[in-house]
Amino acid sequence: MNKKTVIFFTVFSFLLLPVFSQVKKIKVATIAPARSSWDIEENSMAQEWARITNGEISLQFMNTVALGGEGGVVQKLNSVRPGQKPPIGGAIFTSLGINELVPDSYIITMSVPGLFKTQDEVNKSVEKFYEDIQKPILDKGYVVLGWFSVGWVYYFTKSEVRTPENLKSLRLCVGSLTAPALTNAFKAAGYTTMDVPVDKLLQSIKTPGGVEGLYTLPMYAYAAQYCKSVPYILDVPLCPIMAGFLISKDVWAEIPEKYKPALIESVRKAERKFALSAEKDTDEYLKRCQEAGAKLVSLSEAEKKAFSDSFYKDSKKMYETKDPVVSKVLFDKISDYLRKLRGE
Q1: Percent of residues, the chain, with pLDDT higher than 90
Q2: Residue 25: which of 90, 102, 105, 122 has the closest Cα?
Q3: What average pLDDT score do residues 181-201 get?
Q4: Which letter does DSSP use for residue 18 in this model?
């Protein structure tokens, strides 16, 4: 290689250096199971962010389980040492993770069993009370880019359950050690609960004296194969699981303003897709669980009413405790709004 060629490549490299240095990689923890429709949609959103920003912004999704669960993600959103940037810049959390990060958000109010009856009610309530939910999170230092409807939670139990009393007598795992807030709310409502780490849950289910039931999404019950060990599914959709896409204010501030409207619109597009597919995915994974050997326990109208009445009474107990994780103010606002929406 002659001298002129060496000089050319050296100058060319220095000209390219600023281009490569402009690429900003944003690490985002996610609870989406690998290869699920949720995971696929997140990857599509990452590709769209790269396209919108001409490659300047790169979203890198990291599985929450590998980071120690949602509790571990909360720790990694904070700086290890003063002056250092946190290991990750954002997360897609369930309400449990958001509650742990920002307890004052009282986001678990959206997960009180029996509050919502349809996905349409959920979508309209999120839109109506967006600012109420967003403000405490924003005050904590995080921007909520969007809310995703993931699906509806069901009870999976070792034995067939047909009454609230029967359900409350079982040892249930509803929150785990990494997110005890929901567990405490259920205890206040009279349920028997067990705190078990996610990586020990299946072992506990198979051990005498261990967990006898789960409060979870059919997607997770199938993906982790819990449905084979707790094979009875109570056919009562309890509540929606909302996932919030949070990113730190500092990271968001580093993104050029010219791109932000299009980036937010890409998240809105993903929201609409999730809203349309949430019910479909729930039905799909309930079917897969049954194909794997689980049984859907259908209830009579009288049995359904007994659960509905029980949920209504239990909701009050969840916000009347000494350290509530459910906001009475937000709960009453949503309840009043839903009554008007239903024409009650």
Answers
A1: 49
A2: 90
A3: 84
A4: H
Q: Read out DSSP for 252-296?
A: HHTS-GGGHHHHHHHHHHHHHHHHHHHHHHHHHHHHHHHHTT-EE
Under DSSP, the state recorded for 207 is S
Q: What is the DSSP letter of 158?
A: S
| Both structure tokens of 145 | 């880019």
Tokens 């989406």 sit on residue: 32
246-247-253 Cα angle (round to 5): 145
Summarised one tens digit per residue, pLDDT across range 227-275 is 999 999 999 988 888 889 999 999 999 999 999 999 999 998 888 887 7
Residue-wise pLDDT tens digits, 299-339: 999 999 999 999 988 888 888 877 788 899 999 999 999 99
- Alpha carbons 311 and 92: distance in angstroms, whole number: 28
* Closest to 178 (Cα-Cα) out of 165, 161, 162, 196: 196
Q: Are 150 and 38 in contact (CB under 8 A)?
A: yes
Side-chain half-sphere exposure of 340, counting CA atoms within 13 A? 9
Residues paired with residue 23 on neighbouring β-strands, in sequence order: none
Per the DSSP assignment, residues forming a β-bridge with 230 are none
Residue 291 CB: number of other CB atoms within 10 A? 10
Predicted structure pTM score = 0.79
Query: With 0-12 CB in 10 A as exposed, 13-18 as middle and 19+ as buried, what is 228?
Result: middle
